[in-house]
Amino acid sequence: MFRVRSRNQALAIILLAASLLLVVPFFTFLSTPFQCSISATPLSCAKHPVLVEDMQSLPGESSFWPTVAVTETSFPTTCLPQGAHVNGFTVFNNLYLRNGTFFVVSLDSSIFPSREAILSAPLDLSAGPERLVPTDEHLRYIDIEEAEQLLGHNPLHIDDTTVIVYDTNLFLRHYYHWWGEIVLGFWRVYSMINEPGPLPFPSRFMLPLVDEGQWRDQADINGLLLRAIHPSVSVETSDQWNDFIRLDRTVIFKRVAIVNRGAAHRHPDSARYNKMIAPAMGLDTPSTYWKPLQAKLTQNLLGKPSDSHITQETAKSKPVVTYISRQKTGRRLVDKDHEALIRSLSELQDEGFCEVEIPVMENMSVKEQIELVSRSTIMLGVHGNGLTHQLWMPSSPWSTVIEIFAPGGYFFDYRFLSRSVGHRHYAVWNDTFVTEREAPKAYTEAEGMQGNEIPVYGPGVIDLIRQRLATHPTFRTTE
C-alpha cells in the first residue's frame, strides 16, 4: 500500500509540474503588452486578445489556481507603419476619432512622437506659438482600458487610405502649397512604407477646418489634378467632418495620415528654410517615388500610355525649353531683359538646338498646360507659382529648372520640388548661376524680391541651357 501511494504521489507531482510549465508561460503571455513600435510591419497592429479583469479563486479550489476572467476587446492598437513620420506628416494604422478628438490606443505612448510634432490647435499660424499648442481636446494617448471607457464598443471602420489635412484654408487655396507641400510631403513620408505592389492613392482628403469649396485655388487646378490621378477621390470639408461629431460614435481609420503645417514648422529645418515640407526632405525615399503619380496624371488626363512620356519621348524627341513668363503679374523681369531673353531663346530654337515654348498659362486650359510640361526638358522663369508645374515634367539626365531671383535673394520652394522629382536646379542672380552646393544655407530675403524690376542676363541663361543639353541624344545626332 505504501508503494502504491508513493507511486500515485509521484504521478501527481509530475502532473502538477507539467501543468505549471504550461500555465506559467500562459500567464506571462497574458501580462506581456502588445505594442506596435514605429518600426512595426505595416498593418501589424494586432487586436489585443484579452483584458485581465480579475484573478480569484473559485469556491472549493486551492488559492494556488487562479481564475482569469477575460474579455475580448474591439480596439486594435495604433501604430506608425515602418515609422512613417516627420514633423507635420504622420501616417497611422488604427487611429481613432470621436467627437472631433483623435485617440492613439497603445500600451506604451512613449513609442509615438510628441503631440506637438503631429498637429496644432485648429488656428491660423498667425495665432502665435502658445495658442497653437495642441491639447487633449485635439489628440489623446490612451491605453486599452481607457479605450473601453472612452470610445465605447464596435467602432465604425474606414478601411481604405485617408489624408486629414488639419489646417485652415490660409495656405490651402494655392497650387504650390497644396501640391508642392501637402501632397508631395505626404507622399514622401507615405513612401517610407515598404509593401508589396504600389501604394494606393488616398481615397479621400478630409479638411475638418475648411468650409465647402474654400480649398480650391484661383486657377482651379488642385481639384482637377486630384481627380485625374484618382477619379474616385473625394474631398470632404467641415460639413462632412461635423457629421462624424453628430454621430456620437467612435470611428477607426485603418490607415490615415495627418498633415499639419503648424507641427511641421516646429521642426528646426522648417524654421531654417521657411518651408512646411522641409522636415520631409531628409527622408531616404526611393528615387522614383513620385513617378507613379506623374504617370497616372499623364495617362488619365492626356490619354497617353502611362510611361511613354517619361521613358521614351524624353530621349527621342527634340528637347523642349519652356519659359514661363510672369510679365503680367506682380513679380516680373525688367521689360528689356525679358525681351532680350526671348530673343536669345528664339535664336537657340532657330539653330535647331531645341524647341522653345513661351506659354501664357492663364490663357491655356489645365490639360494644355500639363501636356506642355509633360514633354518639357527645361523649365525657366521668375520665382513663382508656375514653377510648380515641374512636378509633371519628366525627370531625365537633362531635366532642369532655372529659377530667376532678385540678386541675393533665395527661397527654397522650387528647389525642394526639383530635388524631390529628379531635376537639376539652378538659381539665377542676373548673370550669376547658383547651384544647390553654392546656395544660401537658409532662406534669404533681398531688395526687389517681390518687385517688377528683376534683372536677368539672357545670354548667360542660353549658355547654361546649352551646357545642360550638350549630351542630349538628338543634339549629338545633329552634330
TrEMBL record:
Signal peptide: none annotated. Its main location: membrane. Residues 175-395 form the Glycosyltransferase 61 catalytic domain. GO terms for molecular function: protein O-acetylglucosaminyltransferase activity. Keywords: Glycoprotein, Glycosyltransferase, Membrane, Transferase, Transmembrane, Transmembrane helix. It holds the Pfam family Glyco_transf_61. InterPro entries: Glyco_transf_61_cat, Glycosyltransferase_61. This is Glycosyltransferase 61 catalytic domain-containing protein. It comes from Rhodocollybia butyracea. The lineage of its organism: Eukaryota, Fungi, Dikarya, Basidiomycota, Agaricomycotina.
